[in-house]
TrEMBL record:
Cofactors named for this entry: Zn(2+)
GO biological process: protein processing
InterPro entries, per database record: MetalloPept_cat_dom_sf, Peptidase_M13, Peptidase_M13_C, Peptidase_M13_dom_2, Peptidase_M13_N
Domain Peptidase M13 C-terminal: 603-807
Region of interest (Disordered), residue spans: 1-31
Protein name per its UniProtKB record: Peptidase_M13 domain-containing protein
Bias (Low complexity) ranges: 15-31
Record GO terms (molecular function): metal ion binding; metalloendopeptidase activity
Keywords: Hydrolase, Membrane, Metal-binding, Metalloprotease, Protease, Transmembrane, Transmembrane helix, Zinc
Keyword Zinc: yes
Organism the protein comes from: Macrostomum lignano
Length: 808
């Protein structure tokens, strides 16, 4: 058990603990008191050297006492009695502690002489709960030097089960689940009706209650039927597969018309439109203004399902589409469905894999004029003019375009031209756009329609059971109307006092990253100076949007909806349309930084365009943070999260953005070459990891996140050591067994405990830029010599390899 506190531990606290345990060594205040001359029994033989000194002291004391008044003598006696009582109590406590320790920790005490001072243990209920959670996830029989993930999360994986209707369980999802219970009580306690002159908070509460109840109201959803959805998608057609519009389709529908109308429809109603994504966002090459954003979109299944011909998944999709056609009464044969899937395969084949297109790596700068010349198969100006008809954002030939995935568009035009040249193929695209328009809105209609995408996802991701209706509806309200729900969440559960403590934590992590920049010998001075400038310029978003505190702004942002408790589909459409219109109308306003994540999200992010880090209220709570947590736990958990997001500003994608968020090359060639060597080391290291038998990651796909994980933990550790206090309370029980540094690493590792179905793991591994939990622990700890020292790991052990990778 060499990992339980060793002499190799590099912390100052370690020597304090050893001293407290052994009165022979002295050093701590309690040990000094026990060996103090003045409390030795009078008449003790002692030794020849010390005895006269004691007599002298006692003699002087006697003289002083004789000179005292009666009251003074009484006071002195009282002090002596008190001192005696304190001494007896201290001895009793010490003995009790030693007995208890030797009873349950015999081996640890024998080997390492470890106990903790009783008065330095945190007995606050938060610490007790924290200890219980840390212990309940750990598998202490595992060797932390060989597999720190198993050591930290082994029992989590044995004890936690994946909830019904979910593909995974991890620390984030467990906390989100806990939030859902809180959100449910907020939603259920609010009234869905509100007077016309209600204040904005009352209006938000009633709209949230109405939306939630309309979701739960299955009979009203059943009664509304599917016609509202067919009516909504009608303007994108006319559809060949709908009897009512088949004739109009034959009169002259073209793919170009269909794509134009589909793009406009998708802007409001789909996050995953067919063929491509078109919108207006911050110009990443000049972040003071906006630009058109154009990128490839996604297929219904993952790209790999088509490219690698995963027949079971493709068959499951075919079944779902046939079910959809039947439910909506579409004239679509089984062959039509197979053709749709073949079209998706063609789109997938020209799409770029996620490992190539991560972040802004493939983002290029263009203009509308250039776009039209390069890809003339679509009238981009027409599409944009229609899309932005309610916006003051001007589209001209010189309007900037942030073009992602250029090679996709180079192949898209030949594909669309080929499809347009054939009547049957044109009908296929018409069917495809109909299916893709209906698909994202299925969850908001009848229960039968809802189950079509749900069943498909469950089959492909190996999900069992279904979630309770209230959970589905809380998640739905969260997804559709997340910021109003966030306002309720913040008002009820966010501890505003945490704000300044989090700011201080961020300060200390920034200081640690600053030190890391100073240490980076591979950087040239000019680049380093600019990097320090970028670090200093990082902006912060903590908790929730500022406009939550201002009723006028709150009304402007979130007010004006009139939702009904019996009209779920209509409510959703109203929210989608209205929020899209508001977003479009604001395109003429200056670019401003605001939260891109709802306050209740158990997550965090870095925005390269704004050079900003964001920590929603949802992650500023346990298990990541509580004001009562000892610092080493806070640093290991939320500290590493903060460090992770800061490091994103300097990962292989973030580093291309300067202090103002503009994408440009501001590093010297030599520094870039050295950086690439360091990041290659990380990519190769992660590619060598395997989880669940034989699952491996693409080093390039997870590179940005892995650089951030490594930097995050390192910064958290350094920041902790900078402010470490010697008298910091230990956790009950754990403090007897593990040093503060060890608990810091444990708190970090446990943020990545997870369970995932094998099917979901194999799906996500091709698209998720975050590596599996195991790797998020193995990589960062294996690259930190401080971890090897803290646990006394043999050089060459798995968690303390000789060759380490280091970027920041
Ligand atoms: Zn990240």
């Amino acid at each position: 058990m060499k990992y339980v506190r060793t002499d190799l531990d590099d912390n100052s606290e370690m020597s304090g603990s050893l001293a407290t345990n052994s009165s022979a060594t002295g050093g701590s205040s309690m040990a000094a008191m026990q060996s103090d001359d003045s409390v030795l029994p009078v008449g003790s033989p002692g030794n020849g050297v010390s005895q006269p000194r004691r007599i002298t002291h006692l003699h002087r004391l006697g003289v002083v006492i004789k000179r005292c008044s009666y009251l003074e003598k009484l006071a002195l006696l009282a002090v002596l009695v008190l001192l005696l009582i304190v001494l007896i109590l201290a001895c009793m406590l010490y003995n009790v502690r030693l007995t208890a320790s030797s009873g349950r920790l015999g081996y640890a005490n024998q080997l390492y002489n470890v106990t903790a001072s009783a008065n330095s243990t945190c007995t606050h209920p938060v610490c007790v709960q924290l200890t219980a959670r840390l212990l309940s996830y750990m598998n202490e029989s595992a060797d932390p030097c060989e597999d720190f993930y198993e050591f930290s999360c082994g029992l989590f994986r044995q004890r936690v089960t994946i909830p019904a209707g979910r593909q995974q369980a991890n620390v984030f999802s467990l906390q989100s689940g806990a939030n859902e219970i809180l959100l449910r009580s907020l939603l259920e306690s609010a009234s869905p009706s509100v007077s016309a002159d209600a204040d904005i908070n009352a209006e938000l509460r009633s709209n949230l209650a109405a939306l939630y109840r309309s979701c739960l109201n299955e009979s009203a959803r059943e009664e509304a039927g599917l016609q509202p959805l067919l009516d909504l998608v009608a303007p994108v057609g006319p559809w060949a597969a709908c009897n009512a519009t088949a004739r109009a389709y034959k009169d002259g529908w073209t793919i170009a018309d269909g794509l134009l109308r589909s793009a406009v429809f998708s802007a409001a109603h789909s996050e995953n439109p067919p063929f491509f994504y078109l919108g207006v966002t911050v110009d990443i090459f000049n972040t003071k203004r906006r630009a058109v954003h154009l990128s490839q979109s996604s297929t219904l299944l993952l790209r790999d399902d088509y490219v690698r011909n995963r027949t079971a998944n493709l068959a499951a999709l075919a079944e779902s589409l046939e079910e959809l056609a039947k439910l909506f009464g579409l004239t679509m044969t089984a062959q039509d469905v197979r053709n749709i899937i073949e079209l998706e395969r063609k789109i997938a084949e020209i799409s770029l894999p996620e490992w190539k297109r991560r972040g802004s790596l493939l983002m290029g700068n263009s203009t509308i004029k250039q776009l039209q010349e390069d890809f003339p198969c679509i009238n981009w100006t027409s599409v944009l003019l229609t899309l932005l008809s309610n916006s003051s954002y001007a589209i001209t030939n010189d309007t900037p375009v942030n073009l992602h995935d250029r090679s996709f568009f180079e192949q898209l035009c030949p594909l669309l031209n080929q499809l347009s040249s054939d009547a049957e193929q044109t009908r296929l695209v018409n069917n495809y756009l109909l299916v893709r328009s209906i698909w994202p809105l299925l969850p908001f209609t009848t229960p039968a329609a809802y189950r079509i995408p749900e069943k498909l996802t469950y089959r492909i991701r190996g999900v069992h059971g279904t979630e309770a209706p209230w959970k589905i509806c809380v998640q739905s309200v969260d997804g559709i109307f997340g910021f109003p729900l966030g306002k309720l969440f913040v008002d009820s559960y966010f501890l505003r006092d945490s704000h300044s403590a989090i700011e201080r934590l961020i300060d200390s992590l920034m200081a640690a990253f600053n030190a890391s920049l100073a240490d980076a010998r591979w950087m040239d001075e000019a680049t380093r100076r600019q990097a320090v400038g970028k670090l200093d310029a990082i902006r912060r978003l903590v908790g929730y949007p500022h406009y939550f505190n201002n009723a006028t702004e709150l009304r402007r942002e979130l007010g004006g909806y009139r939702l009904r408790p019996d009209r779920y589909f209509d409510n959703v459409v109203q929210i989608q349309r209205e929020s899209t219109n508001r977003a479009l109308s604001r395109l003429s306003e200056p670019v401003r930084l605001t939260f891109g994540m709802t306050p209740q999200s158990v997550n965090a992010y870095y925005s390269p365009s704004f050079n900003a880090i964001a920590f929603p209220a949802g992650i500023l709570q346990q298990p990541f943070y509580r004001p009562q947590f000892p610092a080493y736990v806070s640093y290991g958990a939320i500290g590493a999260v903060i460090g992770h997001e800061i490091t994103h500003g300097f990962d292989d994608s973030g580093r291309h953005h300067d202090r103002d968020g503009n994408k440009r090359e501001w590093w010297s060639n030599g520094t870039v070459a050295a950086f690439d060597r360091a990041t290659d080391c990380i990519a190769r290291q992660y590619e060598a990891f395997t989880v669940d038998g034989n699952v491996q990651v693409s080093g390039q796909l997870v590179l940005g996140e892995s650089i951030a994980d490594n930097g995050g933990l390192k910064m958290a550790y350094r920041a902790y050591k900078q402010q470490q206090k010697p008298d910091e309370p230990l956790l009950p029980y754990l403090g007897d067994r593990y040093s503060r540094e060890q608990v810091l690493f444990l708190a970090y590792a446990q943020t990545w405990c997870e369970l995932i179905t094998p099917e979901a793991l194999r799906q996500l591994i091709t698209v998720n830029t975050h590596p599996p939990g195991q790797m998020r622990v193995w990589g960062p700890v294996a690259n930190m010599p401080e971890f090897g020292r803290a646990f006394g790991c043999r050089p060459g052990s798995k968690m303390n390899p000789i060759d380490k990778c280091s970027v920041w």
